[in-house]
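Input record, target 12 of the design panel.
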């Protein structure tokens, strides 16, 4: 029994992970989210209308049915609002960490003066190179380029740490400790930024919103009147839901879409650090 439970949990976990990876791949393309949502929601509404023809709604319970539809739409609105809030919080995190990275790099550039002249020059040169890689991290949209940027960033972090170690070992003092502490902040802020770019709206939350949206459109189609005007109105809700999903996906996707974090603080710092 224990083996079967473990196997079931493993299969369930693998299925969830696979589903979330596919959902994330779709969410990374907000325009695709818009088109897919409109199509599936419209099909759901037409399915509800077809079911209404097969099993007509009793006029005596239409008012009660309208209350049920309104309740379902309220639930959907709450879920969409919750999803928008999650996406916006993560967007704000990405912005804040971009500012924190710029402050950490700028502070350490100044603290390099606390090191011996040779180490100070090496540290400043490495920080300028590191800063360029951090800017490329924010503006790159290619996964292949991103892998190379991450590799170079990791290599530069090792070199930066090595550049402050000799002075801290040969001349340990509160002054050199400031340079070491500043370098630690530079490396830590990069890790915080990477974490903020990884953690997004879970795929299961997207699936839940999508399923409830489908159900709401089926209910709307089922309760619609059998007139041409009513049939034309069935496209309204799919469009509204699709626009909402597209906005959430745009904010939640760090690299694609219209709403992305611009490395303006890092670029401004890079301009100020370039040799005159």
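The sequence produced for target 12 reads:
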């Amino acid at each position: 029994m224990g083996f079967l439970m473990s196997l079931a949990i493993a299969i369930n976990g693998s299925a969830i992970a696979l589903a979330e990876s596919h959902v994330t791949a779709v969410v990374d393309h907000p325009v695709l989210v818009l088109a897919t949502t409109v199509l599936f929601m419209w099909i759901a509404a037409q399915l509800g209308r077809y079911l209404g023809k097969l099993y007509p709604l009793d006029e005596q319970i239409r008012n009660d049915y309208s209350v049920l539809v309104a309740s379902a739409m309220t639930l959907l609105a709450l879920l969409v609002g919750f999803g928008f809030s999650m996406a916006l919080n993560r967007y704000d995190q990405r912005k804040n960490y971009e500012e924190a990275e710029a402050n950490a790099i700028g502070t350490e550039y100044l603290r390099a003066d606390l090191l011996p002249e040779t180490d100070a020059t090496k540290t400043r040169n490495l920080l300028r190179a590191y800063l360029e890689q951090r800017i490329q991290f924010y503006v790159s949209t290619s996964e292949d380029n991103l892998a190379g940027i991450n590799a170079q960033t990791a290599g530069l972090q090792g070199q930066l740490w090595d550049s402050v170690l000799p002075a801290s070992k040969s001349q340990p003092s509160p002054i050199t400790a400031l340079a070491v502490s500043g370098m630690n902040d530079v490396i830590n802020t990069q890790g915080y930024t990477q974490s903020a770019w990884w953690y997004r709206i879970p795929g299961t939350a997207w699936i839940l919103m999508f399923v409830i949206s489908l159900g709401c459109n089926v209910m709307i189609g089922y309760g619609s009147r059998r007139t041409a005007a009513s049939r034309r109105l069935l496209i309204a809700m799919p469009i509204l839901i699709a626009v909402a999903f597209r906005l959430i996906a745009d904010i939640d996707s760090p690299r694609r879409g219209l709403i992305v974090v611009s490395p303006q603080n890092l670029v401004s710092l890079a301009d100020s650090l370039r040799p005159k």
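Residues 94-200+262-273 form one domain.
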